[in-house]
Amino acid sequence: MLHVLSCEECGVPELFNQSHVWLNNGDIVQKANPRARLGFIECDDLDPLLQNIGDIFGISVEHMIVNVIARATAAYMNQMIPKDVRENIICKQIDPKVLAAPILHYCHIVGYGKYEYLGSRYKRDADDYSKFKVTKPFSVPIVAGSIAGSLTAMILGEHEVTYKEVSTGVYEFTTSWTEYPEEMKEKIPVLPYDHRDGDIDLERCATCGGPKAFSSYRWDLDAGLVFNEQTGRRMVVSGPEALDHLFKALEEEIGKTLPEVVVEAQRIFTKTRPHSVNEISDENNFRTQLALMGLGNLRQMKIDPGGLLMRIDNAAGSLMTVGKVQGIFELAFDKRSAIKWELSKEGDLLVEIIPLFKQFSPAASQ
User: Fold this and answer.
1) Which of 45, 87, 200, 288 is 20 to 30 A from residue 212's alpha carbon, by CA?
2) CATH code for 285-359?
3) Which of 73, 69, 86, 79 is nearest to 18 (CA)?
4) DSSP alpha helix (H) spans, 110-214
């Protein structure tokens, strides 16, 4: 059984709160590196969404997913591995297996699934490998990228990850050395995060100082699972901005229709799951939940059967948010809708949804 210290009052693992900072503008950053933005996001829709994008355009997007996540993970994990430890590993004075246990331990805390180390070879030559078994990975290609990025942070270089499902929901991931194509590095930059002040003041747990709202979340640490008990949905710490970079790169390769495809795929998936209009109609609760997930600062929300108008500053994972909100609106009012959104250079998102056969208001273009 995994032994983890948790807050006696809210039940949140201490390392979870110690590793991350919830800012006043609806963003989450890594405590050791405030320029690395994170998200604590719902993950059940990730693989269906990514699969739908590939199916619609008839191409595999797996290589891009793994590449983006690998480089974002490397930037994140670089701050968690002491420099002297990394140098000793590279010089082969320390076996990389020494770091495997604490990294896999951390994966359980952030909701990645159950990780088991199966073995490795480390001679810094072409025959090197490492192998892991993961039960209930939150996203198969994103987990592959995370493993590759963790290795980069540990032993440098670039790493390919192959995987296979060995039983239902159980995958084996195997790594090897590789070199990412230069065009991929050019297309998919991983940019540092710059903070913008906001006006969010999350209520804090009196014992651990973390956001108090996490008392309604549940950690199954042995299984590496985290759930929002109010919605029943699985959560995971991941980088929503990494997905934004991925969608932008795919847009350049596939065409300008990609944002609409992402929103539509998310709308459709949302309508297959139980959702309540209360998730977005209670403005204060919706604002808190977006901030807990690191998806930005809700500045405006107006919703009724006649439509929806929403503004989120510092938005991350914006296309998925747009599609989800549209799906919830249609479920709530049993209406098909049209949608319009704009994302400013500063990352501020404006969304308008209207029932079909109505005209958009001027507010959506301001």
Assistant:
1) 45
2) 3.30.70
3) 79
4) 140-155, 182-187
* pTM listed for this prediction: 0.87
Question: What is the Cα–Cα distance from 330 to 355, expressed in whole angstroms?
Answer: 9
DSSP string across 212-269: GGGGGEEEETTTTEEEETTTTEEEEEE-HHHHHHHHHHHHHHH-TTHHHHHHHHHHHH
Consecutive H or E run containing 333 = helix 318-333
Lowest mean pLDDT: which of 66-75, 215-224, 262-271, 313-322? 66-75
pLDDT in tens, 160-213: 999 999 999 999 999 999 987 766 666 556 667 788 899 999 999 999 999 999
For residue 34, report the phi and psi dihedrals to the nearest 5 degrees: -60, -5
Q: pLDDT tens digit string along 246-265?
A: 788 778 777 768 899 899 98
Beta strand spans in 26-179 (E): 28-30, 33-42, 114-121, 129-135, 158-167, 170-178
Specify the length of the chain in residues: 366
Structure tokens, 282: 């209670």
> Where do the structural domains in the chain lie, given as residue ranges?
1-255, 285-359
Pick left, alpha or beta for residue 283 (phi over 0 → left; psi -120 to 50 → alpha; otherwise beta). Answer: alpha
- For the chain, give the longest Cα–Cα distance: 69
Provide the pLDDT for residue 62.
Answer: 86
Contact 339, 330 (CB under 8 A): no
Angstrom distance (rounded) from CA 21 to CA 30: 6
To 10 degrees, the CA torsion angle through 322, 326, 332, 336?
180
Q: Give dist(CA 199, CA 185) in Å, integer.
A: 36
Closest CA to 364 of 306, 309, 324, 317: 309
Residue 123 corresponds to which amino acid? K
CB-CB contact of 228 with 30 (8 Å)? no
